Structure formats: structure tokens, C-alpha cells
Amino acid sequence: MIKQITIIFLVFCVSYSFAQNTYYFSSSEGNDSNAGNEGSPFQTISKLNSLSLAAGDKILFKRGDTFIGQIVVSQSGANGAPIIYDSYGTGDLPVLSASDGPNGNPDPLSTIRIIGKQYLEFHNLKIENARFDTTGTDDDKSFGIYIQSFKTLPGSGNFEDAVLFNYFRFSNLVVQNIYSVNSNGTAFNNIRTTGIYFLDAFVNDVIIEDCYFTDIERCGIWLRKYVSDAIIRNNKFIDLGGSGTIISASKRVLYEKNLMRFTGSNSDPRMTGRGSGMWVFGSDDVVAQYNSSQHARGDGDSSGMHVDYGNTNILFQYNYSEDSAGGFCETLGANDNIIWRYNISVNDGTLDRGGKNKLLWVSDYAFVPTKSTNVFIYNNTIYQGKDYKNVIGDSEISLKAASLNFMNNIIYLEPAAKLGEKAYLFDVNTPNFSRNIMYGGTIKVNFKNLDATKIIQSPLLLDPGRRHYSGYKLVTGSPALGAALSFTEPSFPLAGLGIFSAITSNATKDIYGNPVNLSGATNIGADNGSGEPSIPTGVTYEAESGIILGGSQINCTNGSGGKAVNVGSAGQTLTFNNVNVSGTDLYLINVFYANPFKSSLKVTVNAGETESIILPYSDAYCYQSGIPTSFPIIKTLNNGDNTIMFEQGIIDKIEVVSVNEATLSTKSETFLNKVEAHLEKTIISSNETLRLIINKEIEYKNTGLYIYDMTGALLAKKDFYSSEDISMDANNLGTGVKIIVAKVGQYVFVDKIIIY
């Protein structure tokens, strides 16, 4: 009986000590004299700051409302009972802003201020702080959430020897419009303006996930000093003046599945205009994986991601980098055990806006110049051709290290691209270059000669130039298949421990998820698959090889073979009698035509029913240097020879390929360098799902998908307000050629699809 009473008493004490209070706030409906419940909410930030919060309490802000003032977090939660700041109701996220505009009232340095507190959570809030009115100091700084401890570094120099503050959670936050009063005249490295900022924080156990950062003077997240065991994942950093994330003077950080686009932006004149998607400085044990960075800009460090100086045990794997001004694998000085593996780089390195343009970049830059040791760059795929402004690659090579290992990489250049010709620096004490594929363009001979086992053959990539990592798989017959050097990989010491429980020291898979074991036979490059079927071009039949009745062969400067056939009038025909296929099946027939106006092409297969197909216009007449345009049609062909007859068109050639073998391009289309969209497939069966993949600079736009038949009749539509991809079942759309129109905000995407 005594034991039972004791247990009941203990349970009562625990429940009592963590009793939860929930306080509701509404700027539009509340009053600070209210009770603070949902039916009678408080109103102001001043009221919030006056509350004596306890562990387990919740503070909820009404969606759709705006709250002005600085939140001063003056109480901590407890283990198992954090203090939670969240939203309630429906509609847009509540806006928290320390600044109320240029009205003469001093604007606080941050919207949420946390000094020496712990066990805190922040969810489902929009945080802003565009400062206009000075407080008299720190006019060149501004923060959304500011975390500091005012602790001092122990004599050991290891911040973890101090007592740390624990447990911080941030999720589903929109952090935007963060600007200082005026940073003109402040050196770039002294501009600190950041969305979530940790300074002398002395904190442990941090998770920042599913947040959206945009329109910020410099940085999205900055672990500036003394953070350990942090996970930063599934966040979007879009259009920032500096970097998406900076990790400095911290230990054990997992950075994964983040999207960084247009970092180093200058879209607002207050932005710093320089920044890599993410970088690490003076930190230990960091893993960055499954991240994507596109269009980083600036005249300094502006790579997709980079390793600054003074780091140990940094692993970058399974990342996609595209069109960064700096380049790929930027690694500065005084580092040890830096690993770049199974990443894909597409058109990195540019001179745009003063970019460093160093595609391959390892330097000794540090407080005291010091070459890095044990730099490993292996099994990456690096492509360079034309960037998104159609500028052909001409990048530098700059490599300076104590020891550098460069193995099993693919470097693929388009014919006119250059690497290392503009500038070349090689100063490595102990180089190890082995089994790389170096193909295409003009690659500096001195660099190529570093690898005595190199392969100078096309790696046969699936779709080189595609602005998506899916284009860099290997196809059947690639010389990279099974040809990699087998070696003992460098170790990541904390693999399998703590936040790295799912991280393996050796690579066990590639960027596509295929299994990997580099102690045995593997592929060169980032793809360890067995080889994809190549994108078929089909069997080509030149128009001038067909039987022309009533029409004529004409010169066509940009046509295949410089010829085309004009059978544009009624009764004129072009017939192919020897279209040979290996089995009775559905076939894709790509018709290349040069009609300079909207027209109706008649097609008859094997003397069957004649079908009229409306063709969009091509760009000009052949004699005006017009370029033939292709239009796909689907027809059933029989095993052996088939007859295909065309009437009322200017035909350059046709290509014939089996639908079942067709692998379709998923190249992104770009609109004003702001919006990208691509169809997952453009040929689908009626029992499949049509998907439009949306990648936008500015998320959360009105999005719509509209499907029309060739007469212009609307078959289906889907409108919604989201940042997600669009999916639509094809079973009710009918078969044949359709026109798809997608609207993303003010941008429009148009393409043809075929349903069979």
C-alpha cells in the first residue's frame, strides 16, 4: 500500500510540474485584458513577454494575423516538456515582425530573441524583420530568430566542455524579408543578417526542417559558433543575398535534402550578392547529402556547396550542383579528411557576375595559408556544356593541396567546352589520379597526364546536358561500367553513431540508390547501375528517299541533308514504302516538317484510314533558313515493311521508334531564368499518371494544369495553390496527341503529350 501511494504521489508531482497552459493570441480579435483562451485571446507581443511561462506551455498565434514587436524568450522548457510557439486556425501563417516600418520607432535587432534558454520549439510561423529605424547600434545587422548564451569558451578551446543548452526545434517556418537598417560600407564578412542565427550559442540537439527561407539580406541559417548535433533537412533556400546555410565552429551536423536556388542573389539592392548554397568553416564531422544547389552567384565563394578552411571529417555525397559561379568541389586550406563522392555537377563555374569560374578548385587559403591533407574526390560525374544563358563552358582548374586523391570521376565536356585552358594551377605534394574518364572538348593536357590510367572515351551518359541529375546515368555499353578502380575508401569516423546512425563510412550506394562496394568491381562516375537503354533516335527515313507524287524536292538549308519535300497541295503525296519494324506494335513516328503556318497534315498507314493532324507552325520557310520542327504521332505498324503516306506538308524526314522502347527527354524548360518545369514523361499509357515536375524560384504560386485535344477542346484541368508537383490520371483523357498547358504564377509551360 505504501509503495502504491508513493507511485501515485510521484506521478502526481510529475504531472503537476509539467502542467500545460495554452495561450492564444490574435491581433485582430484579441485584447490583453482577455483570459487568453481560444474564445478570448490575448492581442500583443507585449502581453506575451509579460507572461511567466512554464515547461510544457504553448503559445499559439492566429493564422492570418500580423504581430508586431520583439518576442523575448525569457523562460526555458524542460526535457519532455518544451515551451512551444505555434499557430492556430486556418489560412495564411501568422506573421511575426519586430519592425513596423519606417515610422521613427526603433526596430529591434531580431524578431525572436533567445538568450541562454533551452527546450524550445517553433512551428508554423512566418517570421520577418525588415528594419528601417535605428536603435543607435548594429544598424548593419538584422535577424529573424537570434540565439545566444553569453557563455565564454573554456580554456580547453572545446565549447563542449561547457554546460550546453539543449533541444531546439524549428519546423514549417517561412522566414523572409530580413534586412538591416543600412549595411552600406560594411565589409561583406561583417554582414551578419540571417534568418536563424546562432552566436556563441553553446547549444546541443537542434533540428531545423521543412522551412522556407527567401528575400534575406545575407543568410538563411547560420550556425556561427558552438552548435553540436544539429540536423538541417528538407528546407528551401530561394533567392537569398548570401548563402542558404553557413556551418561554422560547430560539431556533428547533418545537412540533407535541402534545396538552394539563387543564393548570392542581387534581386534586392540591399542583398549582399554573394554566397555558396552552403559552406562549412572551422567545424568537425559534417555530412551533406541529397542536397540540390542551382545558380549560386557572386565574386567570392559562390559554389553549390564548399568546404572553407579549418575543418576535419567533412563528407559531401549524393548532391546535385548546377550553374554555380564558383565551381565544383571548392575546398580551401588547413582541412583534413575531406570527402567528395557520388555527386553530380552540371555546368558549374561561370564568369557571370564576377564568378570565380573554377570548375575544379582546391586551395591553401586559410588564416595562415596551409595546404589541406587527405582530400578525396571520387566517383563524381562532372558535365560542362552550355549554361542556362547559352554560354559555353570555359573554366579554370586550380588545385593546391598536400595530398589530393582524384579517382573514378567522369569529366564530360561538350565539343566546344574547355577546361583548364583559361587558367591552370597544380601544386599538390602527393597527388593520386587514377581511372578517371576525361572526354570531349578541350581538357588541359597537363591535367589529363596526371592520370596514367585515364579513359578517353565517351562515358555514354543517358542525356548529357539535362538540367536534372537523372540525365547522368550510364547507358548500356558505357566504358565506365565495371571499370572503376577498387580501393580502400577514407573513413568517416562517426559513421553509424548518433545523428549519423544511417551514414556509412564506405559508400554503400550511389546517388540513384544502386548498391556500391568500392572494394570490388564498380562503375566509374556517380552511377553504379547496370546501364540504361539509350534514348533511341529511331530509324530515320529521309523525305527525298520516298516516292513523290505531284510535289517536289526542295533545298532546305537547315534540313537533314539540306533537302526537304514539298507536298503541300491537295493531291500531292510523299510515300515511304519500306518502313521496316521488327514486330507488330505501337510506334512513335516523329515527323520533321517545315510548314511555316498552322496546317493539317494527312497521314495514311498501310492503305488504311487517312487521319488529319493539325501541325503548329515551324519558324520559317526553308528558303528563309527555317529550322524543321518535329511532331510526334502514334500509329500501329506491322512486322516487316510498312507504307506511310503524307499529304499537305513540307517534310524533312521521319524517325520511327517503338513506344515500348522510347525513353523520353525530361529536360527542364526555363522561363525568364526564374521558373523551371518539365514533364516526367511525354508518352504515357492510358493507365498511367501524368506528372509535371515544378521547380520554382518563388514557391507557393497559383498552379494549374490544362489538357486539350488537337481541336482545342478542354479535356481536363486542375487548379490549386501549392508548391508541389502536379499529377493527373490519364485514363479519362483518351488516346492520341494532346496539348498540355501548365501555368505557374505568371509563367506558362506548353508541350505535347501522347497517350496510347
Automatic annotation (TrEMBL):
<feature type="signal peptide">
    <location>
        <begin position="1"/>
        <end position="19"/>
    </location>
</feature>
<dbReference type="InterPro" id="IPR012334">
    <property type="entry name" value="Pectin_lyas_fold"/>
</dbReference>
<dbReference type="InterPro" id="IPR006626">
    <property type="entry name" value="PbH1"/>
</dbReference>
<dbReference type="InterPro" id="IPR008979">
    <property type="entry name" value="Galactose-bd-like_sf"/>
</dbReference>
<keyword id="KW-0732">Signal</keyword>
<protein>
    <recommendedName>
        <fullName>Right handed beta helix domain-containing protein</fullName>
    </recommendedName>
</protein>
<dbReference type="InterPro" id="IPR011050">
    <property type="entry name" value="Pectin_lyase_fold/virulence"/>
</dbReference>
